């Protein structure tokens, strides 16, 4: 399971993270009819989806790889929140925005629109398409978004959160963040309203992606034994007796047993695809089919099958025709070589994406916890340039060492950020300086450093091998501590000196606060710094881009000066697809190649 960055902005339906610029979504037929005509290919000049014009759904099936089993309709619980689960569920739900090819925010105006009515105080109005409806015919309304707010606002004792630190009633991965910012909840004239407003108690930098998709309130109400109107009233009145039943279903009722397709009576969809009856074979695949009740632009191909295939088997499956589209996790030089050997039968695309590799120190215990000089000694011997040259450039020739955490080398503001925060001191290996720091830290020859990561991962094994070859010369004894349960066990338990993994979907304005602040839920290493904490508070509480840039430099500089960890490189992204397919597009965003999947079609 990929680790994905969480933040207050994860109050959206677990779809990703990224940057801020808007563009419009494609428009299509309001009255789709199934037939054999396919969508035509369209040029995609900008970061958002191409407008394909009138689309009818063609018969046929397209098969795409994911690496893990499907877990459930509700991707917003800790038990189901993963990149691979969202790969499926993102096809099922409409939302106010999606992430484009470069991570930009693209407004999905077919679903609805939103605008800030005022910035201070921040008030945002959302308006749903009048035709937006669940596949069972129930309109998507304010009631769905009030439930979405409740799941991120109400505490287990039936109160609205005061600061987000209380125990939530709903098992939502974002905790109580939305209630912390919007304590009164969204406001509307009636439960079936198509327009509603959010009044923020304080400004939140990432407000544009705070509200995305929602789950069906009418289903939760029915399962709790009440009407939708009664559920709305219970939320507004904080009626804990009713809300406990609603939360119990929200928390547990949408979890799935492998192979059991969710009951359409409790799992209606609002997007272009729906579950196919009997379309899930545990450990093998799950198939979606075009939602014949969809009110928007229809899916271009009738069936979309997600096959659960490990990264090392995907290329052969593509060659055999068992897969049509792949995006191998952790691609290597061999990955690209093998794909090129398939010739004209496949289309291969590479890019740098918004996922980045890093080495993080353990501040809770061990030799690096209270010694900057020890951390400096390690940083001075890590061969970052060699790692990039040997493992990344053969895939992405433009790749460089990454010298920031909140900004990527291919983004326009990268150079300005780095020039103000980092002096290049760790760009090249300096064994003499590393040895001096090693001695100054009072370390002894043969000091063990366990580098932990999730196994198996050939590229990370090669990274650790390169680090060992260099850092053992300083006096460290680098130990490859790869483990299959690293994320579930070693990382949360602190059983490492250095953690090697990646954050996916970086680029939200304030998402890093959850990682680098003293109380951040994803600050696994226990790092704490007052300067960093204060800078994040300032950054997150404004929409002023100049302040964002200023505070980002402060944060990056302090993270370098105190050595939170060591950034390595932006991940190369590799996708490959059958040459017979149209509208398959690469992306830097963590939504991956599937972001345009409803537009995929066989060439006519």
TrEMBL record:
InterPro entries: SBP_5 (IPR039424), SBP_5_dom (IPR000914). CDD domains: PBP2_Lpqw. GO terms for biological process: peptide transport. The keyword Signal applies. It comes from Promicromonospora sukumoe. Pfam families: SBP_bac_5 (PF00496). The keyword Phosphoprotein does not apply. GO terms for molecular function: peptide transmembrane transporter activity. Residues 117-506 form the Solute-binding protein family domain. Keywords: Signal. Residues 1-29 form the signal peptide. SUPFAM superfamilies: Periplasmic binding protein-like II. This is Peptide/nickel transport system substrate-binding protein.
């Amino acid at each position: 399971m990929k680790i994905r960055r969480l933040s207050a902005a994860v109050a959206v339906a677990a779809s990703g993270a990224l940057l801020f610029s808007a563009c419009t979504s494609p428009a299509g037929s309001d009255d789709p009819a199934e037939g054999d005509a396919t969508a035509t290919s369209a040029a995609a000049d900008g970061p958002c989806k191409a407008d394909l014009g009138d689309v009818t759904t063609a018969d046929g099936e397209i098969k795409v790889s994911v690496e893990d089993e499907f877990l459930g309709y509700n991707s917003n619980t800790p038990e189901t929140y993963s990149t691979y689960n969202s790969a499926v569920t993102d096809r099922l739900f409409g939302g106010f925005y999606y992430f484009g090819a470069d991570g930009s925010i693209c407004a999905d105006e077919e679903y609805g629109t939103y605008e800030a009515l005022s910035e201070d105080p921040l008030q945002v109005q959302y308006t749903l398409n009048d035709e937006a409806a669940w596949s069972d015919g129930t309109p998507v309304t304010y009631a769905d978004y009030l439930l979405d707010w409740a799941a991120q606002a109400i505490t287990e004792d039936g109160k609205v959160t005061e600061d987000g630190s209380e125990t939530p009633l709903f098992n939502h991965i974002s905790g109580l963040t939305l209630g912390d910012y919007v304590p009164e909840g969204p406001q509307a004239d009636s439960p079936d309203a198509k327009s509603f407003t959010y009044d923020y108690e304080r400004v939140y930098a990432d407000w544009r992606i705070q509200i995305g998709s929602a789950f069906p309130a009418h289903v939760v109400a029915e399962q709790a034994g009440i009407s939708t109107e009664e559920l709305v009233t219970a939320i507004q009145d904080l009626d804990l007796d009713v809300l406990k039943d609603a939360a119990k279903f929200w928390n547990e009722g949408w979890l799935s047993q492998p192979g059991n397709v969710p009951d359409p009576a409790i799992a209606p969809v609002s997007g272009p695809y729906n579950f196919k009856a009997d379309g899930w074979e545990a450990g093998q695949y799950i198939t979606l089919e075009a939602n014949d009740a969809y009110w928007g632009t229809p899916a271009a191909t009738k069936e979309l099958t997600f096959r659960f295939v490990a990264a090392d088997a995907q290329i052969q499956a593509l060659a055999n025709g068992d897969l049509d589209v792949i995006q191998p996790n952790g691609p290597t030089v061999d990955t690209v070589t093998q794909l090129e050997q398939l010739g004209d039968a496949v289309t291969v695309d590479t890019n740098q994406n918004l996922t980045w590799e890093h080495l993080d120190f353990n501040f809770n215990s061990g030799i690096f916890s209270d010694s900057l000089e020890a951390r400096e000694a390690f940083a001075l011997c890590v061969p970052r340039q060699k790692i990039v040259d040997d493992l990344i450039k053969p895939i992405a020739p433009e790749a460089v060492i990454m010298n920031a955490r909140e900004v990527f080398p291919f983004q326009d503001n990268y150079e300005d950020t780095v020039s103000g925060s980092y002096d290049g001191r760790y760009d090249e290996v300096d064994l003499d300086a590393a040895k001096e720091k090693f001695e100054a830290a009072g370390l002894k020859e043969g000091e063990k450093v366990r580098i932990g990561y999730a196994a198996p991962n050939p590229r990370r094994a090669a990274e650790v091998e390169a680090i060992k070859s260099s850092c053992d010369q300083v006096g460290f004894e680098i130990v490859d501590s790869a483990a299959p349960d690293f994320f579930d066990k070693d990382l949360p338990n602190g059983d490492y000196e250095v953690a090697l993994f990646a954050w996916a979907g970086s680029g939200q304005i304030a998402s890093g606060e959850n990682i680098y602040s003293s109380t951040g839920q994803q600050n696994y290493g226990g790092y704490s710094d007052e300067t960093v904490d204060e800078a994040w508070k300032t950054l997150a509480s404004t929409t002023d881009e100049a302040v964002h840039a200023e505070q980002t430099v402060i944060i990056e500089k302090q993270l370098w000066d105190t050595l939170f960890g060591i950034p390595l490189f932006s991940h190369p992204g590799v996708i490959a697809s059958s040459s017979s397919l149209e509208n398959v597009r690469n992306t830097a965003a963590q939504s991956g190649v599937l972001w345009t999947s409803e537009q995929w079609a066989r060439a006519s």
